[in-house]
Amino acid sequence: RKEYVDLYVNYVFNESVQKPFQDFMQGFLRGCPARNWKMFLPVELQVVLQGHTTVDWHLLEKNVVYGLYNKSDKTIKDFWNVFHELPEEKKKMFLGFLSGSDRIPGYRLECFRFSIVDPQAKNPDELYPFANTCSLIFCLPR
């Protein structure tokens, strides 16, 4: 029985997927030659492909660029006070709202910047916050 189980597991996890995996690997290596990836350790390659899974939220705050706001404005202070009280899951949801992903891209965390701008609405109470994910701009009404 043990031999049967071993052979069956080998078939399911190795032999049965060998052809589809070879096709995938051939296509992947056509677009991303292996010589370019060999310089990375597995952990580094994972960060390059998937992004950082942990975020220093205070560093993120420090790197923000403000448009039509100052760091000392009440709206900005209130925003960061509320933001830092959120649970980790909600902070990542904000990051997804802002950038389309709940992870920081693979380059250094210190280089990730986004902007908080005032959309200058006539009646800001009637406008919800919105984001431009391509430009990493968060529009926060006063």
TrEMBL record:
Keywords, alphabetical: Ligase, Transferase, Ubl conjugation pathway
Matching PROSITE patterns: HECT (PS50237)
Lineage of the organism: Eukaryota, Metazoa, Chordata, Craniata, Vertebrata
MF terms (GO), sorted A to Z: ligase activity; ubiquitin protein ligase activity
Keyword field contains Transferase: yes
Documented EC number(s): 2.3.2.26
Domain HECT: start-end pairs: 1-142
Gene Ontology BP, a term: protein polyubiquitination
Regions annotated as coiled coil: none
InterPro entries noted in UniProt: E3A/B/C-like, HECT_dom, Hect_E3_ubiquitin_ligase
Catalysed reactions listed for this entry: S-ubiquitinyl-[E2 ubiquitin-conjugating enzyme]-L-cysteine + [acceptor protein]-L-lysine = [E2 ubiquitin-conjugating enzyme]-L-cysteine + N(6)-ubiquitinyl-[acceptor protein]-L-lysine
Name of the protein: HECT-type E3 ubiquitin transferase
Top EC group: transferase
Gene: Herc3_0
Catalytic residues identified in the record: C134 (glycyl thioester intermediate)
Species annotation: Neopipo cinnamomea
Cross-referenced Pfam families: HECT
PANTHER family the record matches: HECT-TYPE E3 UBIQUITIN TRANSFERASE, UBIQUITIN-PROTEIN LIGASE E3C
